[in-house]
Design brief:
By secondary structure, the protein is α/β, with parallel strands linked by helices. The protein has a single domain, classed as Rossmann fold (3-Layer(aba) Sandwich). Helix content is 43%, strand content 18%. Strands 3-2-1-4-5-6-9 form a 7-stranded parallel β-sheet, with helices on both faces. Strand 4, helix 4 and strand 5 form a beta-alpha-beta unit. Helix 3 packs parallel to helix 4 and helix 4 runs parallel beside helix 5. It is globular and about 50 Å long.
């Protein structure tokens, strides 16, 4: 881990891209993981030292193989940012078991595999960080989120378990709850009548995550909730 490497899952056009840009700006080599190869290559071309690794993190065997490629090409990541998410609306009557299990693999099981694969090198080095981006569904299960909220709640609890195990070994684990609508094109279209202060900016999320990763170890944060200043909560 002589060269700082940050691995970002779910390196899409919103939060994922903002995280990649923020850590690349700080001198990290960034491993970009997502399903869209074309979009990944375009983002990687914008960032010095970044590399694209197209993969569906819900395919656990493919994920393990991709992580081996990351270690071979860039080195062992000292920072893991798990931003990949699978979600959807629907009550318990409408969600299928297959949809539910697929979301659980992407949101939860992939985090387990990522930690199993990447944490040992962090432990050996005596340092490292794992940050998971969550949302309001990690706290409560509304009727229309029956096929999604349970996976985010489980994700948060897994992150807490990881934090309790890895913290004493020098690895900082944190869960960031994004209690807001992220400012991306589809959200702007869906909430066209809302003012700018209704949305949370991906760059603001990235700055907060970067701060958490680099906190002094006597004052680590586990759970951080973010929302716009105008949010009524």
């Amino acid at each position: 881990m002589t060269e700082r490497v940050c691995l970002v899952t779910g390196a899409g056009p919103g939060t994922g891209a903002a995280l990649a840009r923020r850590f690349a700006a700080d001198g990290y080599r960034v491993a970009l993981l997502a399903r869209d190869a074309v979009r990944l290559e375009k983002l990687a071309a914008e960032l010095s030292g970044a590399a694209a690794f197209p993969v569906d993190v819900g395919d656990l065997d493919a994920l393990r193989a991709t992580l081996a490629q990351v270690r071979s090409r860039l080195g062992a990541p000292s920072v893991l940012l798990h931003n990949a998410v699978a979600g959807g609306f629907g009550s318990f009557e409408s969600v299928t078991a297959a949809e539910f299990e697929q979301r659980f693999r992407v949101n939860v099981t992939s985090l387990l595999v990522l930690a199993q694969e990447l944490a040992p090198a962090m432990i050996e080095a005596g340092r490292g960080a794992i940050v998971v981006t969550g949302n309001t569904s990690a706290w409560r299960g509304k009727a229309a989120f029956a096929g999604f909220a349970p996976t985010k709640a489980a994700q948060r609890i897994l992150a807490e378990s990881l934090a309790r195990t890895l913290g004493p070994k020098g690895v900082h684990v944190a869960y960031v709850v994004i209690d807001a609508v992220i400012d991306v094109p589809w959200a702007r279209k869906a909430f066209a009548d809302r003012p700018d202060e209704f949305f949370i900016r991906p760059s603001g999320i990235a700055d907060a995550v970067h701060h958490v990763v680099h906190q002094e170890r006597s004052a680590w944060t586990f759970e951080l909730d973010l929302r716009p200043f105008g949010e009524s909560w």
